[in-house]
């Protein structure tokens, strides 16, 4: 019995060995035949038949070569969903193949699917920092934008990216309007038109759509200073309930309520500080900014001082010829303050120490931790927070950088550059405001109205 078992085992081993050799010989041959046949069919435009052959080849041996051929066949058949899904699968399997990333990028570009394109393009740019084709595509997409025609008459930015949007020629009394007889030509003189403010976010969505003359949001977003249509200032909460007032004072203007809890108000032409209950402090100045990072700037006569939360009510020395304020009214941003002394502007830190020995004819206040504007011989360029020039003076005017972009003026019109000083949006606007974090900015058209520009590269980042 044992004599029969051993030869049987040997026979089975030999058969298995022969079968394996046969399979190893047959499989590559079958794979090559399927691919060869598929290639021939594809060359003749018979893509459906080619697809079947490529799939058979893939079932035998799954590799990059045949999967790429399958991908190209999906593309030739205009099978969009299969093509995109196949591309995504290949990218996950072969993450070092830049050509796959480029194919998907170009498909998103073709479909103008910026929501999918932008984050994937950012990923590809990080994955292949030296790939010139990806760089070039990124530069082109950076220039893509659209304009939302909002037609506001005035726009004011606030630090928390809320915006006061003003409309003029608004009908203030709908009851009167609805009861007018328009067959009578004299009836229209009874309509009361006016200018009103509404509060919107950076996506042009209403935060407050009730009519006020002016609206000033708190930085924490929980309250607002408002001036009603009769000119009275008071505080409201997010439900529009009145939470603060001071009937004894005739406020001409009130700033936002910063995190420090002290706003800046104008009363009889003088600047004074008020708290969140609208209680007015005794000190008054010829001008004052808005608190930020615990610091503010105040002016007496022709001289300025930088004050803190602890010493503003006892300041005696005014050492500066000027302290620059940004469009939010802040003198301090990202720990940087711009002051003028002895005829030149320089940058200080939050302790009042000079950041560098660089001096400039003019410096604008920082809007972020990105470069601000300097002036030299009538031209404008940019310096970083260390006072070093990063873009040489070459523009008629400019605004500080925010979110990687800056507005610049060329031949009387405004456009936008990126941090590499590349013109992203050609100069074409009468005025331009800084770019917000979601890629929106407000620009003024030739008719004097403010519209919203939307930069896709930030909108979908």
Please tell me about this protein's structure.
The chain is 28% helix and 33% strand. The strands form eight sheets. Strands 1-30-29-28 form a four-stranded antiparallel beta sheet. A four-stranded antiparallel beta sheet has the order 2-3-4-5, with no helix packed on it. By secondary structure, it is an alpha+beta fold. It has helices at 2-43, 47-60, 64-76, 80-93, 98-111, 114-127, 132-142, 174-178, 456-459; strands at residues 145-152, 154-157, 163-171, 193-200, 206-212, 214-217, 223-227, 233-237, 242-245, 253-254, 262-267, 270-275, 287-288, 295-300, 303-308, 322-323, 332-333, 336-341, 344-349, 362-363, 372-376, 379-383, 389-395, 397-398, 405-410, 413-418, 423-429, 431-432, 440-444, 450-455. The protein has nine helices and 30 strands.
Please summarize what this structure is.
This protein has 461 residues and is α+β, with helices and mostly antiparallel strands. The protein has nine helices and 30 strands.
What percentage of residues falls in helices of 4 or more residues?
25-40%
Rg is: 33 Å
What is the 3D form? elongated
| First-last Cα distance | 77 Å
The amount of beta strand, in percent, is: 25-35%
**Global mean pLDDT:** 90
Number of helical segments with 4 or more residues: 9
- In which order are the strands of the major sheet placed? 1-30-29-28
Number of strands: 30
Structural class: alpha+beta
Unreliable parts: 16-26, 176-180
Query: Mind describing the biggest β-sheet?
Result: 4 strands, antiparallel
